[in-house]
Amino acid sequence: MTPFNGRLGSTFLSIVTMSLSTIRCWLTPGRAASTSMSSRVADPSFTRDVAIGGNAYSQALQREFNLKFENANRLKRAIPVHGVTYGDAEPLIRAVTQDLLQEINKSLDFFRATAKTDHFDNLVLSGGCSRIEGLAEALCERFEADVQPFDPLDRVTVDPQVLSVEERVDLGPMLAVAVGLALRQVGDR
């Protein structure tokens, strides 16, 4: 268990509105590790880092298909590279996803036991690895919960000539830390 991540927490608490009874799980799969945070209202009650992140996908794809790191990163987002299609890679990606889901399940089991609740209302997905093909669907199926991408720009006016709607949807989940840093005020730690 790790302390609540201040940058992500600042973003989450500033942007997300929740009713008093809402319980959310925020999953941030990063490059080297994934963080899961469960909260009721705006009080993060549990965070946990697991040692499975985007690199686990990339390394598995590199080994299996003899790819460079950059190409493995493209393939995990369903972009074909050097004759390798997503269909070729899908079984391997699903296997890594299952490992990640198992770790997330451990986090949620602990949260459920300590929060004395057997449910959460939805999963909020952020981070660059949230774009891994099939991850959101696998989360939805495994945990029988609504999975939504986190949009840290939800309450920010963005000029569509600077950042198109498509770019905003694609990049949004990766901007949580940057927006959290931008929301900091003098004296914040």
The assigned structural class equals alpha/beta
Q: Enumerate the strands of the largest sheet in spatial order, edge to edge or round the barrel.
A: 3-2-1-4-5
User: So what's the CATH class?
Assistant: Alpha Beta
* Total domain units: 1
Q: Tell me, briefly, the overall form.
A: globular
C-alpha-based Rg, rounded: 17 Å
Q: CATH topology, what is it called?
A: Nucleotidyltransferase, domain 5
> How many DSSP E strands?
5
Succession of helices and strands: HEEEHHHEHEHH
Low-confidence stretches: 1-7, 10-15
Question: Considering the protein shown, what is the CATH homologous superfamily?
Answer: ATPase, nucleotide binding domain
How many strands, what sense, and barrel or not for the largest sheet?
5 strands, mixed
**Nearest-integer average pLDDT:** 79
Distance between the ends: 20 Å
- Approximately what portion of the residues adopt beta-strand conformation? 15-25%
Provide a concise account of the structure shown:
With 189 residues, this protein is an alpha/beta fold. It is 43% helix and 16% strand.
